[in-house]
Amino acid sequence: MTALLPEAPIFKATGVGCRFGGVIALDSVDFQVGPDEIVGLIGPNGSGKTTLLNVLSGIYRASSGSLEIDGKPSRFKSSRRLSRDHGLARTFQNIRLCPSLTVRDNVLIGMHSGFRWYDALWTGGRGSRERRSVERVEEILEFVGIADKRDEIATDLAYGDQRRVEIARALATNPRLLLLDEPAAGMNPREARVLVDLIKRIHDEREIAIVVIEHNMNVVMNTASRVMVLDAGLCIAHGDPKTVSSDPHVLEAYLGKRFRDA
Ligand SMILES: Nc1ncnc2c1ncn2[C@@H]1O[C@H](COP(=O)(O)OP(=O)(O)O)[C@@H](O)[C@H]1O
Ligand SMILES: [Mg+2]
């Protein structure tokens, strides 16, 4: 198992705990992700997967344990700083698109979130910066396969397409680590297969590390090189997808029922 761990992780969480009143959402969890990885995070509902992503992306503050970014101890940082200074981007389990804005404008927002006020001073002025932004948005929309929906109101789209707009918006921040929280939720099997291909292309062609939470086992098993399983806030298994999927603890806690029913 140790051999699987990255030599130089982007993010390393050690003994991370997170509690809400009496609820222990995470109980001393070790987690890391390296620049060349796609890491799968699975576990039953309420097992702490989203909480771990929220801790990594600066939305929740860990109650205990430590975080390192690029080998340096990291105190609590806001999502904005993690995005701007460390190239972290994410999507949400509950889709968070701006209502009444088009697909293109939703993605453009992602791009602007990375700007600093002084960017305007040396990029040849606002006009050329905006032009380049629009070109980049177009390239990203093509890449995720929703360019034909660019002028539609994002929240009017089918669920699966909205999830792809969220991914496009995250890509617009030019990340090096992308956290995906249940990207296949609401997708039909065909859309989920296209998503598998998209996740692989994001990793291979754009060289972005990925952490993916998913209930769709086809998505996890066909993308992740390493999988961690949470159950009631504890890591109960960790390893390559094949080993994890045959681990008796995992079969009992989670996969067994799904695989039996599949
Ligand atoms: N903001 C919050 N306030 C109170 N409890 C929370 C909060 N976020 C998560 N929890 C609790 O933490 C546990 C883990 O939740 P979550 O991380 O969302 O699980 P998962 O994503 O694996 O389904 C659950 O018991 C949930 O109710
Ligand atoms: Mg969740």
What's a concise summary of this model?
The chain is α/β, with parallel strands linked by helices and 262 residues long. 40% of the residues lie in helices and 23% in strands.
Describe this entry's structure for a reader.
The protein has ten helices and ten strands. With 262 residues, the chain is an alpha/beta fold. It has two domains: 2-87 and 175-261, P-loop containing nucleotide triphosphate hydrolases (Rossmann fold), CATH 3.40.50.300; 99-174, no CATH class. α3 runs parallel beside α6, α5 (126-144) crosses α6 and α7 packs parallel to α8. The radius of gyration is 19 Å and the shape is globular. The model has no long low-confidence stretch (mean pLDDT 89). The chain binds adenosine-5'-diphosphate (ADP) and magnesium ion. The site of adenosine-5'-diphosphate has 11 residues, from β2 and α1. Residues 49-50, 93 line the site of magnesium ion (MG).
Strand and helix map with partners:
Blueprint: E1 11-20, E2 23-33, E3 38-42, H1 49-56, E4 64-69, E5 72-74, H2 79-86, E6 88-90, H3 103-112, H4 119-122, H5 126-144, H6 159-171, E7 177-181, H7 189-206, E8 209-213, H8 217-223, E9 226-231, E10 234-239, H9 241-245, H10 248-261
Parallel strand pairs: 3-8, 3-9, 6-7, 7-8
Antiparallel strand pairs: 1-2, 1-4, 4-5, 9-10
Bound molecules: adenosine-5'-diphosphate and magnesium ion.
